[in-house]
Each structure stands twice: as structure tokens, then as C-alpha cells.
Amino acid sequence: MEKEPITFNGLKKLEEELIFLKEKKRPEIVAAIAEARSHGDLKENAEYHAAKEEQSHNEGRITEINDIIARANVIDVTKLNNEGKVIFGSTVYLEDLDSGEKINYKIVGKDEADLKQKLIFFQSPIGKGLIGKNKSDLVEISTPSGTKNFEIKDVKYI
Distance (Å, rounded) from C-alpha 149 to C-alpha 42? Predict the structure, then answer.
């Protein structure tokens, strides 16, 4: 079983989602199934089939989260010495050398990645291009939308 790197916050969010799915969502679905069953013929009962499908999705996600937690290798960068190196869990402050735009990304695991929240998967093109680099480095990264040129302005372990 391969360990999966995850940040402390990422693990906390997964644990919260697991509690929600087990303690809130699961009973709601069971109640919906019971309600739909009370309407009689199950073959023609759309509510019953929808509730059973939702139950299947919910249980699948519970299994998935349990698996992720079992394989979690929590990396807490706040406890590491920051020497300006981009590592898993660090927040990287960049300047796009082509547009002058300043952006920052936190390098995270697969289940935490969310581009809208500037959480970038460490195995993504940008993640791979940044890991191992240092503050002040110039970085050229091939992305699906073309080659990007960045300067690493700062690296924080927060």
C-alpha cells in the first residue's frame, strides 16, 4: 500500500467529510429509502432508485476516504526548516514573467488539489516544475496551455 502525501489541513477536511457522510448523509439516505419503499412497487419507484443510487455513491466515497486516510502520510511543513526550497506543502509565490501577474500556489496532494483555491497537485505540470526549485529561481514549465515562465519570489512553509 503506497503512502499518499497529504497536508495536515487536507487530512482534517477529509476527516470532517467522513463524519458528515457517516453521521448526517447516511441516515438521510436510509430515511429516503424507507420513505420510498413505503410507496409500494419498487420497480416503478423513481425515488427508491434515486435514493439507492445516492446510497451507493455515499458508501463509495466513505470507502474512498477511509482508504486515503489509511494511506495518508501527513506532511506538516510548519515544523520544517525553511531554506527557500519548494517542497510538498509549501506555498510558492510566483511572478509570471510573461504577464507580470503575481500568483501563489500551495503544493498539495491529489485529494486536496483545487485550482480555484490555489491548491495545486504536486504531480501536475506546475507542481512538478516547482518542486525542488528555490526562492529566486527562474522556472520554465510546459503546461497544457503552453510554456509558462515564472520567477519564484518567495517560498513559505505555512
Answer: 59
pLDDT tens profile 8-58: 999 999 999 999 999 999 999 999 999 989 988 877 888 999 999 999 999
Grid coordinates in use for 9? 489541513
Reported pTM = 0.80
Read out DSSP for the chain?
---EEEEHHHHHHHHHHHHHIIIIIHHHHHHHHHHHHTTS-STT-HHHHHHHHHHHHHHHHHHHHHHHHHHEEEE-GGGS---SB--TT-EEEEEETTT--EEEEEEE-TTT-BGGGTEEETTSHHHHHHTT-BTT-EEEEEETTEEEEEEEEEEE--
Q: Could you give all domains of the chain from N- to C-terminal order, each with its CATH number?
A: 4-75 (1.10.287.180), 77-156 (3.10.50.30)
